[in-house]
Amino acid sequence: MVIDKKNPCWWPRLTSAKRKCAWVKVDSSKWKNPHDEDVDDVSRLFMSKRNEKPAKRPKIGADEEERFADFVYDYLRQKKPELLKTMFGEAGRQVGQIQDNPLSSTPWNDDLRKKYGHFRRVTLAKLGGGKNPMWTCTFDDCTHSPKGRDMNVQLHTATHFSQINCPCSVLGCEDVLSAPSPFRTHLINRHKLPVEDMNSAENAKYKKVVKDFFIMADAVVYECFPPEAFIGFDNKERAKKVNPVCSECGEAIDDQEVRRTHVADHLDLEYKCVFEGCDYKSSPANFATHFYCIHNTTVRMLSEDQDKKYDDIKREYSCARVKVDSSKWKNLDDEDVDDIVSIDLSGAGGFDLREDELDSDTDEMRNLPPGMP
């Protein structure tokens, strides 16, 4: 069957399969792929790369080899001492014993020591949960011990260096603030410009000032907090030190946040609904459901006055729960392990600290070699 390409009346008479083949044939004859040559070049390049031999690994110098050997020796000494005799001879073990402290040994230059200190600072801050003092400032006679969060260390470092500050980003204002928090307060009080009301240009300037502040603080953080400034933290995991069984009702609760809410329920911490004329009382956790079911509204749809009352209730409730928690869970030192007590507040349930789980405290951190952060 001969198809006249110029006469489209023939196309409906064809079956679907024949029409598809004819269309492909016509299309391939009319349109040429302009990148055929490029595809061929890429194919040849790919085949040439496949046929090439892999590059040889660079040789390790004598200094790097010695450094790796010290790393391996220190790891085996702490984790698997029974393999030391297998991998190191008598002479090697004697040299390793002399270099017992890896931070003081020859492979650890200043740059590597700072990198290791930064790794320890970030890792230990995560283990400490950001709630326990972990560092003691060594700048001059300062003995301040900020909590484990990395931002707290940087903010305290900035207090010792006047050149680390936050200049106001508003055009025409020459005020210089000491930290991001006073900077935000200055923008609200002086310029009536909270962060959430900034346009894109103002927000970009604000973020740049805050970012530059922390970059400058992080650059000199080791002037105040070198790796050896680590003083340890009391508890690796707070939940493991607390008996999860409530002394009032006998319910076992492992999560710290749920435990606080549970104790607050025993104390009957209830607040009145923010809507005028409504006598409903409950904890803030139940208000969102109450707003939707009774008042046919959501938290985002509250008026300005109602939203302020709701925020005050949540803040007061949160402070009350933390106060109850901090007064009931005693922060123990090694000498105070035997003095475990359970404090009862106004008949509320409590959770006793478990003595048998305190031995699993940060043994690895406490048994580090001298000088190890």
Helices, by number, come to 14
For the CA atoms, what is the radius of gyration? 34 Å
Please state the average pLDDT score. 66
Strand content: under 5%
Strand order of the largest sheet: 1-2
Largest sheet: 2 strands, antiparallel
How many β-strand stretches?
6
Q: From N to C, what is the helix and strand string? A: HHHHHHHEEHHHEHEEHHEH
Helix content: 40-55%
Indicate the structural class. Answer: mainly alpha
- C-alpha termini separation: 88 Å
Count of discrete domains:
3
Low-confidence stretches: 54-58, 98-106, 234-239, 326-373
Domain C2H2-type: 135-160, 166-191, 244-266, 271-295
Protein name: C2H2-type domain-containing protein
InterPro entries: HSP20-like_chaperone, Znf_C2H2_type
Region (Disordered): 350-373
Task: Name some characteristics of this structure.
373 residues, 3 domains, 47% helix, mainly alpha, 6 strands, disordered C terminus, two-stranded antiparallel ribbon
Structure description:
This is C2H2-type domain-containing protein. InterPro entries: HSP20-like_chaperone, Znf_C2H2_type. The chain has 373 residues and is mostly helical. It folds into 3 domains: 42 residues, no CATH class; 119 residues, no CATH class; 124 residues, no CATH class. It has 14 helices and 6 strands. The protein is flat and about 85 Å long.
